[in-house]
User: Fold Thioredoxin from Aliiroseovarius salicola.
Amino acid sequence: MARALKMTCLQCSAVNRVPEDKLGAGPKCGTCGAKLNDGKVRALDPATLAKAMKNDDVPLLIDFWAPWCGPCRMMAPAFEQAAKALGPQARLAKINTEDHPNVSQKFGIRGIPALILFQGGREVKRQAGAIPAPAIEQLVRKSAKLPA
Ligand SMILES: [Zn+2]
Assistant:
């Protein structure tokens, strides 16, 4: 039996359990049917973020950004590129700190963009400032335990 990994649906925030060997098979949310790990960057709200960071076994990298922040906008394509490169073994999502100002305070973020990597209910890595796609990918590969 393959290990079941918890993954919060970034669309409806239901917690799904996906067998590790099915991660690459395009798993969908049992509640709303959204694809769980299609390599696309999704925008989160604070409630979904709170649930995902608490539950998810699959590495979750969050980009804390805002529309007024030039370096944030510059990094956005690199972040999407890294999400594609990492494939189904990790998920990348973003949260708009202008729409949700409380999250910056909650996570003690002083400057954006800021990247925080979560896995298994804890923060495993934090990166301040914009970095290119290969560096984003390496951050996840080096700091998280990627599923098999
Ligand atoms: Zn869902």
User: Anything to note?
Assistant: The radius of gyration is 14 Å. Strands lie at 4-8, 15-19, 42-43, 60-65, 91-96, 114-119, 122-128.
